[in-house]
Amino acid sequence: MTLFLLLIGTLQAQESSEDEARYTKRVEKYISRWEKLIPHYSKIQYAGSMGLISLGTGWNYYRNHWETDVLLGLVPRYSDRHAMITMTLKQNYYPWNIPLSDKLSFEPLACGFYINTLFDRDFWGRQPDKYPKGYYWFSTRIRTHIFAGERFTLKLNENKSWHKSISFFYELSTCDLYLINKIGNKSLKPKDYMSLSFGLKLQIL
C-alpha cells in the first residue's frame, strides 16, 4: 500500500512539473510576442506631404531590409486655415547596404509607400451628401504616396550613447492625385508633383 501511494505521489509530482513547464513556455511565448511590439527606433521627418515636421517610431525586420513607421505630423497654421495633425503609416524597403567604413554605411536605394490622413473635419474620406453623386471621385482626407531616396548610417558607441546608430535620409515622393494630374496635364513640371523631404532615424534596438 505504501509503495502504491509513493508511486501515485511520484506521478502527480511529474504531472505537476510538466504542467508548470508548459505554463512557463506559454508565458515566455506570450512575453516574446509582446516584446516584438517594442519600437526599434525613433524618426523625425521634415516635409514629404505629411506635415511640416513629423515624429514617430517604427520596427525593422527581415535582415533590416524592411521598416514600418508610424508618424504624427504637424501642418502649421496658415493665414486662411488652422493648424492640423496628420498620421502616416509608412512602409520602407532597403535592398542594399554598402559599408563605407567601420562605422559608416550607405543605402543607395530607399523606396516604398505610405498612407497619410488628416485629422480635420474640413476634410473627408467619403464624398458628403451635399455634393452630387460622383462629383468628387477622390478622398480629400487620405492620400497614398510612393517615394524613393537614399540613406547614410553612422554607428554610435553604445557605451556612450543611448542609440546604436543615427541615419540621415532624403526622399522624393508624390501622391496618387498628383500622378493622375501629371498624366492628364503633360505641362506639369517635376516640382509641381514631386516633394522633397529630409529626416533622421535614431536606432534604439
What does this structure look like?
The protein is α+β, with helices and mostly antiparallel strands. The chain folds into two domains: 1-37; 39-203, Porin (Beta Barrel). Helices cover 23% and strands 42% of the residues. The protein contains three helices and nine strands; from the N terminus they run H-E-E-E-E-E-E-E-E-H-H-E. It has helices spanning 2-35, 176-184, 190-193, and strands at 41-46, 53-61, 66-75, 84-93, 98-99, 104-119, 142-155, 165-175, 195-203. Strands 1-2-3-4-6-7-8-9 form an eight-stranded antiparallel β-barrel. A hairpin with a 6-residue loop joins strand 1 and strand 2 (53-61).
The residue fraction in helices comes out at 10-25%
Give the end-to-end Cα distance, rounded to a whole number of Å: 60 Å
The chain-level structural class is: alpha+beta
Strand content: 35-45%
Report the radius of gyration as a whole number of Å: 26 Å
Nearest-integer average pLDDT: 85
The parts where pLDDT drops under 50 for at least 5 residues are none
